[in-house]
From TrEMBL:
Assigned protein family: Belongs to the gamma-glutamyl phosphate reductase family.
Single GO BP term: L-proline biosynthetic process
Name assigned to this protein: Gamma-glutamyl phosphate reductase
EC numbers: 1.2.1.41
Gene: proA
Sequence ranges assigned to domain Aldehyde dehydrogenase in this UniProt record: 5-282, 316-378
The species this protein was found in: Neisseria perflava
Pathway: Amino-acid biosynthesis; L-proline biosynthesis; L-glutamate 5-semialdehyde from L-glutamate: step 2/2
Length: 416
């Protein structure tokens, strides 16, 4: 039996031990995990430092280093996230609907765990803890495969969680980390249909595309965010500047940061210089503009067609000028990754048209795309942002990690 097969077998066995756990037991365990993470912060930070040294040697950018870096404040934040999941209502056992049919059968549909969840993700070590907390709360075992860049950090975080599980008399294999960071191990995980019920990739476009192409396990697609902001001809320009600067510069390495700017031609001459001046006070951004927009910037470069479809995860932004809101919608729908899109406008008609017409998981009016987040949406920690349409869409909280089962009770009925 291979390494991945053994992990899958262990996860299946462990998942069955979660069925009998009540909400109180799960919540107590999660709160203890939060405490133990804070108490073992020095050990976790020491391992994270090893990842940072290796990442710098491999020439990783400062922005990506920020995704990888942990400190006491971030560990405290991770622990608080676990506590917040403990405070959320447990969806397992919730009745979705109940009724008696014409045959006198009492039919109840309840929420149940998926079983075994696998996750392949990149860089950010907090993801491993968020994923565990959501999976555990919903009664799922989870197998995590993080990137090579964060292997020491992830190993340390999962070791703390497994120790807490053992101290509580629970099966530590409800969470396992694939410590083999080879592509071969990842591909074997994608093929493990006998053990894994659903696979969630979280990372860049190349990772997600690879998983979609090679996985035999059902996949929930997440993460890639070529997020647009459209500044309409009726927009409050000061508001638009604030929204774009926030969405682009607050944390450019995350999937809900804005990558593309679409501007109505009527306000472009007034808006783009104002934006360029404002953003320079926060952090320089390289604008990659179309031919018409290029002349309105002091410093910009001509965009390529590829730029309009790129998730930069950097201080780079494409710019496109359009003549109408309809053209803006067509442009965005032609380049979207179905994550988060926004319009800045004072027109109710344009706002409603935009929200109804844009094909994305989250569509904003007069707000930054940076709000697409499980915590912000009141879902607690998220396991990812689903950009597909089946089962789950948008920030994936607890309910996204459940299925349903029909419970039918009769008194001798037979079908004639």
């Amino acid at each position: 039996m291979s390494y991945i097969e053994q992990m899958g077998k262990n996860a299946q066995k462990a998942s069955k031990t979660l069925i009998s756990l009540g909400s109180v037991e799960k919540n107590n365990l999660l709160r203890q995990v939060a405490k133990d993470l804070v108490e073992q912060a020095e050990m976790i930070l020491a391992e994270n430092a090893r990842d940072l040294v290796a990442a710098k040697e491999n020439g990783i950018s400062d922005i990506m280093l920020d995704r990888l870096r942990l400190n006491h404040e971030r560990i405290k934040g991770i622990a608080e996230g676990v506590e917040q999941v403990a405070d959320l209502q447990d969806p397992i056992g919730q009745v979705v609907r109940g009724y008696t049919n014409l045959d006198g059968l009492k039919i109840v549909q309840k929420r149940v765990p998926l079983g075994v969840v696998a996750m392949i993700f990149e860089s950010r070590p907090n993801v491993s803890v968020d994923a565990f907390s959501l999976a555990f709360k919903t009664g799922n075992a989870i197998i995590l495969r993080g990137g090579r860049d964060a292997i020491y950090s992830n190993t340390a975080l999962i070791a703390v969680i497994r120790q807490t599980l053992v101290k509580a008399g629970m099966d530590a294999d409800v969470v396992q980390l694939v410590e083999d960071t080879s592509h071969a191990a990842a591909e074997e995980l994608m093929q493990a249909v006998d053990y894994i019920d659903v696979l969630i990739p979280r990372g860049g476009a190349r990772l997600i595309q690879t998983v979609k192409e090679k996985s035999k396990v059902p996949v929930i697609e997440t993460g890639v965010g070529n997020c647009h902001i459209y500044v309409d001809d009726s927009a409050d320009l000061e508001m638009a500047v604030d929204i774009v600067v926030n969405a682009k510069t607050q944390r450019p390495s995350v999937c809900n940061a804005a990558e593309s700017l679409v501007v109505h031609e009527k306000i472009a001459e007034a808006f783009l210089p104002k934006l360029e001046e404002a953003v320079a006070k926060v952090h320089p951004v390289e604008f990659r503009a179309d031919q018409e927009a290029l002349r309105m910037f002091k410093n910009a470069v001509l965009a390529t067609e590829e730029d309009y479809s790129t998730e930069f995860l950097d201080y780079i932004m494409s710019v496109k000028i359009v003549k109408t809101v309809e053209e803006a919608v067509d442009w965005i729908n032609g380049h979207t990754t179905h994550h988060s899109e926004a319009i800045v406008t004072q027109s109710i008609a344009h706002a409603e048209f935009f929200q109804e017409s844009i094909d994305a998981a989250a569509v904003y009016v007069n707000a930054s795309t940076r709000f697409t987040d499980g915590f912000v949406f009141g879902l607690g920690a998220e396991i990812g942002i689903s950009t597909q349409k089946m089962h789950a869409r948008g920030p994936m909280g607890l309910e996204a990690l459940t299925s349903t089962k029909f419970y039918i009770n009769g008194n001798g009925q037979i079908r004639r």
